[in-house]
């Protein structure tokens, strides 16, 4: 028995086969043969970097790792100065604002994301955008890399005098990690600077920071900000801490030099700084404290506790005066607990500031 295929059906089958071959061929030809590179800049002293490495990257790389080449660039070690230079050059090309520069940082095809939350939330969509339109992303990457990052001019040795710089930091400060890498670059680039490090959590360092702030005309609400730098009569605060700004500061004082003015502070200078600390805490009026207490009282946790308490009273079939007495005891327990917690915090502050 001879089977005859309808010409229209045969043509349709041929069309389908041709389409499949064309699509698969286009996928092989149109998609870039060389994998793009994703650069992951991180610091071993950065808790957020560890969180991304341990909690996010394993699943992310398992899902998308075949699409790109993943390169880790650690920036903390002295041997890895070139890695930090690469990061700064990319940030300069992309005009990343100073306040947004933070570890970890990921660069991929013309886009930079920095910070734990942004990396976890945005990186996947950037990769998917590349998969959807690789040619467009490649062009963006080429355009970004064609930009020339700003170069910082080094000073001649004969033009320089010794500069003492005070650097205030805090444990757990996100931006202090970036500041520390800039400090290493400064020390490697300029041999005539001496950077003195002050942990702001140490009582005497708080006083020195405020005394320097008063001396340089820093706004009072910025006292004890970290990271911060002081040179001569100039200060640089957190949002302005950058390699360019600090290098400019070094250049400004290179001809005349800058002494470690904090070493010549007298007891009266530190006493005035201590008074500033006292006045800051004494400025909180009863109205402000009461308002803060009310704001704290209106919160989901408190509502949930009240609902649970009412449900408990209903289940135990409490009525009348009994409910009032139990409610009164509950409120008193809350008051006493919060009072002693607040008192405990006051004692901690009292020890820190010696007031």
Question: How would you describe this structure to a colleague?
Answer:
α7 packs across α9. The protein has three domains: 37-146, Glutaredoxin (3-Layer(aba) Sandwich), CATH 3.40.30; 157-268, Glutaredoxin (3-Layer(aba) Sandwich); 286-353, no CATH class. The protein has helices at residues 7-30, 47-64, 81-94, 116-132, 134-146, 174-189, 203-216, 243-253, 267-282, 286-297, 300-315, 321-353; strands at residues 37-42, 69-74, 105-108, 111-114, 163-169, 193-199, 228-231, 234-236. With 355 residues, it is α/β, with parallel strands linked by helices. It has a four-stranded mixed sheet with strand order 2-1-3-4, sandwiched between helices. A four-stranded mixed sheet has the order 6-5-7-8, sandwiched between helices. The model is unreliable at 17-31 (pLDDT under 50).
Principal-axes geometry comes out as: flat
CATH architecture of the largest domain: 3-Layer(aba) Sandwich
CATH superfamily of the largest domain: Glutaredoxin
Secondary-structure element pattern, one letter each: HEHEHEEHHEHEHEEHHHHH
End-to-end distance: 107 Å
Care to count the β-strands?
A: 8
Main sheet: strand order = 2-1-3-4
Question: Main β-sheet: number of strands, strand sense, barrel status?
Answer: 4 strands, mixed
Topology:
Layout: H1 7-30, E1 37-42, H2 47-64, E2 69-74, H3 81-94, E3 105-108, E4 111-114, H4 116-132, H5 134-146, E5 163-169, H6 174-189, E6 193-199, H7 203-216, E7 228-231, E8 234-236, H8 243-253, H9 267-282, H10 286-297, H11 300-315, H12 321-353
Parallel strand pairs: 1-2, 5-6
Antiparallel strand pairs: 1-3, 3-4, 5-7, 7-8
Helix pairs in contact: 2-4, 4-5, 7-9
